Amino acid sequence: MIQGNVFKPWVPNWLIILVLVFCMLHSMVLLGVYTSNITYSASFLDVEVEDLQFSLCVTYGTFLATILIESRLFKFFPTKKYFVTIYGLAAITFILSAYTDNFSLFIVLRMVEGVLMALPWIPLRQLLITRFQSKNAVILGFTFNYGTLLLASPFIMNIAVWLLENYDWKYMAYGSAMFQIICVGLVMLTFNENRFHKKIPLYQVDWSSYILVLTAILSGAFVFIYGEKLYWFDSIAIKAAIVVAFITGGLFVIRQVVLKRPCFDMGVFQFDNLRIGFLLFIIFYISRATLNICHSTMFSVWNWEPSRVAHVQYLNVIGNLIGMITAGFILAKGLASRYAFMLGFFLLAVYHLWFTFLFVPDAALRDIALPYTIQGMAVGVLFVPLVLFTVSSVPVEYAPFSGTVGVSGRFWGSTIGFCIMQNAQVFLQKKHYTKLSQSVLWESPETQERISQYTNSFIAKGYATDDAGKLAIRQVLDSLSKQSVLLGNMEIFTALGYVLLLLTVLLLFNKHLKQTFDIFKNRVWGS
Questions:
Q1: Fewer CB atoms inside 10 A, N or C side of the chain?
Q2: Which domain holds residue 421?
């Protein structure tokens, strides 16, 4: 039940929209600031890249669990104080992280940030949708909500990289904390003391379900992130995490079935289109995970500077904008969602198959610009229609739960995507490196000539003859390693490209994939 306007009377509607959109960036800052430069962050904390990825999963996984109970908290606290407290606590956690070099403590802070990321997420979108008088208010609200996340990521990465290159880790945390303080100021300036919802007692929060599902999520994420590194079932930690995930996950499901008012209604899975939306989200995020392979190739093979890689992502932003405008047109015209899905997944297939031919020892920006932009277009076309399709595939009483299913699809899709790419890269790199090493005849004239060239090059730089010879051999082995990486990447992109083409064909002939509920009538308040 909405109680009234929570904004001061003098604040114009356009300013309210700008403030809400700006405050939405809070979630993107919390989620992505530490992963803007994973190599630097990992070296500062003296951890592996997998550890940083797990910290990202901790934040996102905590976010996923917290949105199950968020509405109870939002309806209990006064709206203005609710937002001010969240942004203030977020600023404090960033400051604490600036002086934290202990990874265990860092993980605890990332869990806190996951909670703080979830609490304002749905309320901000609710408030934003109420500011649009158009019949397409839901589309506009969701587009602004999720478009903000898509478009903000490259900007935040560029700022973080600039701070890391010119200052150090602490200043990146200081900058993030300052952003939260600005949000506090904007809320104080524009919000009044009214409540947005009728007050609901806090004792109705299902803390037991929250702890169970959070434990299951984090245990499952641990298995996917560290499985390859710990040799899967050879590790006691992996076995224990699997057991904990199944037990706590099973207890959570049982609890939701037997409770009269569950925090998540399992009946939402009875709707076919919701299950399809969940599956499409997982496929979508698995295919998005290959963008990290592109960035890794830019760093490790093409030797691009971090700032250059960050700047390249603006091409992706241009693609996102084009894609979101196209998706908005499709949705506003009332066309079936599958047309947006077909276009988006087809563009993703084009990006993967095109990039297959770009994994060469050296590439220029002009070579990758168009397919890299196409990837952004595909993401822009798919993101909001997938969200709306999932949350509007059920009757209105199930809408909040269908929204949670969508978030779950995004979380598990990105986590499984990282796992698949990590395992595929390791396996294929080893396979190709072994074959290339066996094919190199060290006594052949071509190999000896290359070693001689490298040796002379190192001698010219001032190295002793013996040292130059050793470095030359290492250079040849490094070349083999890079070539094996490129060949593995080509296989991954080719396989995914064909899978996405097959998916596009299936969507073309699947006449049952259509929205079963009018999204303009279904006022979706779920996540």
A1: N
A2: 270-431+489-526
CA distance 180 to 23: 8
* CA–CA gap between residue 38 and residue 34 (Å, rounded): 7
pLDDT, one tens digit per residue, over 345-358 is 999 999 999 999 98
Query: pTM of the prediction?
Result: 0.81
Q: For residues 400 and 474, state if they share a domain.
A: no
Note whether 268 and 274 are within 8 A (CB): yes
What backbone phi and psi angles, to 5 degrees, belong to 7? -110, 150
- 377 CB-near residues (< 8 Å, 6+ apart): 319, 320, 322, 323, 326, 347
Question: What mean pLDDT is reported for the chain?
Answer: 79
pLDDT, tens only, 323-375: 988 888 887 777 777 788 889 999 999 999 999 998 888 888 888 889 999 99
Query: What's the rounded Cα separation, in Å, for the pair 264 and 254?
Result: 11
How far is it, in rounded angstroms, from Cα 472 to Cα 448? 10
On the question of pLDDT at 21 being above 60, the answer is: yes
Domain shared by 241 and 125, yes or no: no
39 token code pair? 């190599």
Is residue 211 domain-shared with residue 352, that is, in the same domain?
no
Residue linked to tokens 């919701």:
274
The b/e string for 339-370 (b: 16+ C-beta within 10 A; e otherwise) is bbbbbbbbbbbbbbbbbbebbeeebeeeebee
Name the CA dihedral angle for 484, 487, 489, 491, rounded to a multiple of 10 degrees.
-140
